[in-house]
């Protein structure tokens, strides 16, 4: 387990360092999120997340994300999901005029969960999403694209119990995004962005986690890149 965690930390460090090396602008923002899952039967369940993200220096609320999903459980460690997402993006022009871009998504994913050592849970998520980007001021600026996302997350309890139901934990995760269709409409690159994250959390019971941490988001643009330093607070509920 110690070797795997060292490799995980090394990967996070490399991604954070690469963002600092290649980015040509820097931002600072606040994110908040609620992730939920509820099993309805042995094989079926529902879930989703709601997120709020600020603009640079928390000047205003930039993004609101609502993403419900349906889950099918093959077993306790493997499940597939499909869902819908609505993303509202508010912006400002150079002359401080307000802008708004709505985005609708359909998406499909497969999640695999396994243990490393006695009680460290590692989850891998493979997601394909279809993005329908709108523009409220210019219909010719609307477009469709597809993006692939790979997400890996490790929850490392401070206690060494074989079953982790309560206590403090360390969360390590990384997610990489790739444009697989109509990349010229996004940033003209296959690589879209990377998000590396480390957080401390507390599990109140088997169905409720709270955590707060630092997320480094590097986003590739057409001719440059942006590093966003994010402070994030998250609530997880499971029923």
| Helical content (DSSP H or I, runs of 4+) | 10-25%
Order of helices and strands: HEEEEEEEEHEEE
> What is the total domain count?
1
The residue ranges in which pLDDT falls below 50 over 5 or more consecutive positions are: none
Taking the alpha carbons of the first and last residues, their distance comes to: 29 Å
Number of helices: 2
Integer average pLDDT: 91
**Quaternary state, please?**
single chain
**Major sheet: size, sense and barrel closure?**
11 strands, mixed, barrel
- How do the strands of the widest beta sheet line up side by side? 1-2-3-4-5-6-7-8-9-10-11
Radius of gyration, CA atoms, in whole angstroms:
18 Å
Which class best fits the helix and strand makeup?
A: mainly beta
- The rough form would be described as globular
Total strands: the figure is 11
- Strand share of the residues? over 45%
Describe the 3D structure:
With 239 residues, the protein is mainly beta. It has 2 helices and 11 strands. It has one domain (2-186, 204-233). Helices cover 10% and strands 67% of the residues. It has an 11-stranded mixed barrel. Strand 1 and strand 2 form a beta hairpin. The chain is globular and about 55 Å long. Residues 1-23 form the signal peptide. It holds the Pfam family DUF2490.
């Amino acid at each position: 387990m110690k070797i795997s965690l060292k490799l995980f930390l090394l990967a996070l460090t490399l991604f954070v360092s690469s963002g600092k090396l290649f980015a040509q602008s820097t931002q600072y923002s606040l994110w908040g999120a609620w992730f939920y899952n509820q099993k309805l039967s042995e094989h079926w369940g529902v879930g989703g997340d709601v997120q709020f993200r600020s603009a640079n220096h928390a000047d205003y609320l930039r993004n609101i994300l609502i993403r419900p999903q349906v889950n099918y459980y093959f077993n306790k460690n493997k499940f597939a999901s499909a869902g819908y997402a609505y993303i509202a993006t508010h912006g400002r022009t150079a002359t401080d005029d307000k802008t708004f871009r709505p985005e609708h998504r359909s998406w499909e994913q497969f999640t695999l969960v396994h243990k490393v050592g006695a009680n460290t849970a590692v989850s891998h998520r493979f997601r394909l999403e279809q993005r329908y980007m709108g523009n409220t001021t210019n219909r010719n600026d609307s477009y469709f694209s597809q993006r692939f996302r790979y997400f890996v997350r490790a929850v490392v309890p401070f206690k060494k119990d074989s079953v982790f139901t309560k206590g403090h934990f360390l969360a390590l995760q990384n997610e990489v995004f790739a444009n697989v269709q109509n990349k010229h409409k996004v940033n003209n690159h296959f690589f879209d962005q990377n998000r590396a994250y480390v957080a401390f959390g507390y599990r109140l019971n088997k169905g409720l986690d709270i955590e707060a941490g630092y997320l480094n988001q590097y986003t590739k643009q057409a001719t440059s890149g942006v590093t966003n330093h994010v402070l994030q607070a998250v609530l997880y509920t499971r029923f």
